[in-house]
Amino acid sequence: MKVSVQGKPLLDVLSGRKPERRPIWFMRQAGRYLPEYRKLREQAGSFLELCYRPELAAEVTLQPLRRYDLDAAIVFADILVIPHAMGLELHFEEGEGPILETVRSREDMRKLKPSGNSHQIKAVYESLGRVSSKLGQAIALIGFCGGPWTVASYMIEGGSSNRKLSKAAAARGETWFRHLIDRLVEESVEYLSGQVEAGADAVQIFDSWAGDLPETGRKEFVEKPLAAVVKGFRARQPDIPVIVFARGVGHGHSVIEKATGAQGISIESELSMQWARDRLKGTIQGNLDPEILLGPEDGARQAAEALVATMPMERHIFNLGHGIRPATNPEMLNAVIETVRRHDMSKMAG
Ligand code: CP3
User: How many CB atoms lie within 10 A of CB 7?
Assistant: First the structure.
């Protein structure tokens, strides 16, 4: 088992220790905005091929670390690896996003296999092992999965959507839907725990569509499943910190924090960082607007400056409020990182 060693700023803030510097990483830091990523993806032939060839996935994971002064790597994979590993067909169409075989009934539930022994899951574990052996001492390695609600919504809809069928299944409290959520809780616990055994030293749960449901639905199908994943994971990996990204729940993040007991809460750009600082108890990750990285550099620098001025370094993981857009100029990240580092240095000197 891996123990969390002091000296990785990301793990330090998540454990309530004073970090040597403010940890920085970016959601989707490996991806299409980087020319070196596009080149490797072309060589691999497809996004999924890239995910399942550990030597390539490890290389893509490390690409942003070579370019930028970051404090974490996130393993290159996708939240749809679990449904794929459960036996559903999956393709990524150029410019269209994922196309996934659907699950919409009790009969469909029977086709789902346990994901644990699949080649897909094993490939992700192998990527983690390779990255872990190559990372600098102070850099944390993050493993991840999707939140049960978000992953279920892709399985029900068959791809990106407005989640209409999923919301209807939740509103009716369909039995097969409840079973699907429960299955995803189990698979996620197993998968996150396996990622730690393979080398991850923190994990993040991406519940991108957590803001979809009205109050009772949110409690039942977002909060409770997230809490169950964290609880199950913690029973297996008590020393590994968890970050929960329940995107779009707004003030509901304080309920999510209480219900899950996660050490880190990742917040969307729409929420005020000041509100989060004053109302949440633990470490907050976020929440620079990824859109601002598409505009002029001074705008991005000013927004980054305002963000770090609001948030004390001891409780903050600098990140975006959602993933980097593919059209982002890679140089913008250097400008933002430099702004954050400079702010913190002047604070320490003063
Ligand atoms: O660098 C990282 O952050 C790690 C890798 C990562 C990917 N997807 C790679 C990826 C992570 C953490 C994810 C999470 C993910 N995947 C989420 C949750 C976060 C979010 O963005 O809301 C979701 C909903 C997915 C599902 C998914 N994967 C969609 C809807 C798409 C198509 C849209 C798009 O951005 O292309 C993907 C594809 C995907 N996943 C790409 C990458 C780098 C682009 C694939 C390509 O190269 O064309």
Answer: 12
CATH of the domain at 187: 3.20.20.210
pLDDT tens, residue order, the chain (350 aa) = 445 446 999 999 999 999 999 999 999 999 999 999 999 999 999 999 999 999 999 999 999 999 999 999 999 999 999 999 999 999 998 778 999 999 999 999 999 999 999 999 999 999 999 999 999 999 999 999 999 999 999 999 999 999 999 999 999 999 999 999 999 999 999 999 999 999 999 999 999 999 999 999 999 999 999 999 999 999 999 999 999 999 999 999 999 999 999 999 999 999 999 999 999 999 999 999 999 999 999 999 999 999 999 999 999 999 999 999 999 999 999 999 999 999 999 988 76
211 within domain boundaries: yes
Residue 20 inside a domain? The answer is yes
- Ligand 1 atom having least distance to the Cα of 50: 47
Residue 287's nearest CA partner among 337, 341, 323 is 323
Domain that holds residue 230: 9-349
- Point out the catalytic residue in the list 37, 52, 125, 154: 154
Q: What domain count does the chain have? A: 1
Residue 30 in contact with ligand 1 by CB distance below 6 A: yes
Residue 241 belongs to some domain of the structure: yes
pTM metric for this prediction: 0.97
